[in-house]
Specification:
Elements lengths: L1 E5 L3 H12 L3 E5 L3 H8 L10 H10 L3 E4 L2 H4 L5 E4 L15 H13 L4 E5 L7 H12 L5 E5 L9 H6 L4 E4 L3 H10 L1 H7 L3 E4 L1 H32 L3 H9 L20 H14 L5 H25 L6 E5 L15 H10 L3 E5 L4 H7 L4 E2 L3 H5 L4 E4 L11 H7 L4 E4 L6 H6 L3 E3 L9
Parallel strand pairs: 1-2, 1-4, 2-3, 4-5, 5-6, 7-8, 9-10, 9-12, 10-11, 12-13, 13-14
Helix pairs in contact: 1-3, 5-6, 10-12, 10-13, 12-13, 13-14
Length: 438
């Protein structure tokens, strides 16, 4: 099949590459000429494990191409995906649909044959129907259907998530459109018997928001339980395991830490709250999740300051600044709250991240960026781990003790255990567990 993917951001680029790997012919379109130029040179503008090889293989096979010319990509396409950004709108937190509607208008002008136009972007309930209205108004006689097909990709494991998903959700009232979507995802159905959820378009749109809000709620819940553990002497790791073994709850997203961030949870929870309010069905739980998570990041900065006995005039080594490992994404990362708070309290911050420093340097002035974790810790008064990159999981503790002025670690991701750190001679503060001293 021939596919046009409008937008080469995280969702569009990964989806386009994966569809081409299924054997479809995909043209990815973006207005950013510099980004398209980079992609045509084989340069990947985001960090996602395995994406560079996947793109290169399918470009070489002639199944994947990149262009700025939407009018050339759409006419022959059997499916046209809208995968543009829907950032939070300033002032009210609602999803900004400007790019979605602009794409719809341009697609309408370029349509020549029957195609299914698919909203892949995360959009509020009713957006897909509005896209159909825009296209129908501009092209009353055009032959097309509009469907919703939300993505459920986790940064750092997006290719695996696309190729082996928990489910594929499609919102459409058209049998013809559903058949096109079945054909697009046919390899999943044949090989893995992936569940397909066919619904109305509004239902499909809400499934995406509800999924992300529920996962954000699980993260926030376990973080609140971690606070209770610290005050009561319980261990959050054991609590997480104990409740996660309940099949009704599940173990995923029950890892205590400094709060959620990234490209999805912050903006999607805000958009859902705004939308629920407009429909007269306010979501009090999600409202609380947003408030608690925002406060969480500030409290983690205070946790580091307290562990250091104040940071004025001291040097704090920071390991990891992206919102999660295996990505260079800095959007709403806890580090964006924590590091400036440490600086405001008088700390000098030296930091290292395997992939996020190029973007982080633009967002956090005054940080001394280093070439590796050990350089960041050299001469520092202590170290704080903000992101659980694998290379931080087996650090040489004897070497760290020799580098630090004081053997102090604040581990906001619970990479290590209190016992092993005490045995290594460290004062160790983690999340939801009793602090230990050597």
């Amino acid at each position: 099949m021939r596919v046009a993917m409008i937008g080469t951001g995280y969702v569009g680029l990964v989806s386009g590459a994966c569809f081409s790997n299924f054997g479809h012919h995909v043209v990815c379109v973006d207005k950013d000429a510099s980004k398209i130029a980079r992609l045509n040179k084989g340069e990947i503008p985001i960090f996602e494990p395995g994406l560079d090889a996947l793109v290169a293989d399918n470009v070489k096979a002639g199944r994947l191409a990149f262009t700025t010319d939407l009018s050339a990509a759409v006419p022959d396409a059997e499916a046209v995906f809208i995968a543009v950004g829907t950032p939070s709108r300033r002032g009210d937190g609602f999803a900004d649909l400007t790019y979605v509607y602009e794409a719809a208008a341009e697609i309408a002008d370029a349509l020549r044959n029957y195609a299914v136009i698919v909203t892949k972007s995360t959009v509020p309930v009713g957006t897909t129907r509005k896209v159909e209205e825009i296209i129908r108004k501009r092209r009353p006689n055009a032959e097309f259907d509009v469907a919703s097909n939300p993505e459920f990709l986790r940064e750092g494991s997006a290719i695996e998530d696309f190729q082996r998903p928990d489910r594929v959700v499609v919102g459409s009232e058209s049998d013809r459109a559903r058949n096109v979507m079945r054909a697009l995802y046919r390899p999943l159905f044949l090989n893995d018997k992936t569940p397909f959820v066919f619904t109305a378009r509004e239902t499909s749109e809400l499934i995406k928001y509800a999924s992300n809000a529920f996962l954000a709620m699980k993260i926030t819940f376990i973080n609140e339980m971690a606070d209770l553990c610290e005050r009561s002497g319980a261990d959050i790791q054991d609590v997480s395991r104990g409740i996660g073994l309940d099949g009704r709850i599940g173990s995923k997203f029950l890892n205590a830490g400094p709060g959620y961030g990234g490209s999805c949870f912050p903006k999607d929870t805000l958009a859902l709250v705004r939308q629920a309010s407009e429909f007269g069905a306010p979501s009090r739980i999600v409202e609380s999740v947003i408030d608690v998570n925002a406060d969480r990041k500030k409290r983690m900065a205070a946790k580091i300051v307290d562990a250091f006995g104040g940071v004025k005039g001291k040097t704090v080594a920071i390991l990891g600044v992206t919102f999660k490992p295996n990505t260079d994404d800095m959007r709403d990362s806890p580090s964006l709250d924590i590091i400036p708070a440490l600086q405001a309290a008088g700390a000098t911050v030296r930091a290292f991240d395997p992939e996020g420093m190029t973007e982080a340097e633009k967002l956090m002035p005054g940080v001394a960026w280093t070439d590796n974790a050990y350089e960041a810790m050299t001469g520092a008064d202590g170290v704080a781990i903000l992101t659980e990159w694998n290379e931080f999981r087996a650090l040489d503790m004897a070497r760290i003790r020799a580098l630090l002025k004081r053997p102090l670690m604040v581990d906001l991701r619970n990479i290590y255990t209190p016992r092993e750190m005490a045995e290594a001679g460290f004062e160790y503060h983690s999340v939801g567990r009793t602090a230990v001293k050597p």
